[in-house]
Amino acid sequence: MHNNSTACKVGANGWPIPNARNRKECAKIIQDKIGRTIYHVKDSMGAPVLGPSTHDPLGKWAEHFVVIKDGTVYDGFTGSNGMAFEQYRNQWKYGEYLNFTPWDGK
Length: 106
What we know:
This protein has helices at about 25-35, 85-90, and strands spanning about 10, 15, 35-45, 65-70, 70-75, 85, 100. By secondary structure, it is α+β, with helices and mostly antiparallel strands. It has one domain. The longest helix has 12 residues, at about 25-35. The relative contact order is 0.22.
């Protein structure tokens, strides 16, 4: 059974635990921890989904939210060490088409 809650729980290690519906809320927790800007990740060509990725093998996510600090991307899956931007993008089958736009919170 999948967790459909939009609340983002924090694990024992202090890092948020994402599910299919709470990635925006997890990004807010990460931003509170490390600062910087939340980015909204969408397909730059207008596709309705981002495509298959390491954490979404079926490719059903329409969007994602991350924090980028000094060229390192952080989300609920990267852990507190984050991941280099190009390595992060390469998690997606069509990562070269992802658009990272600063999110205004709306």
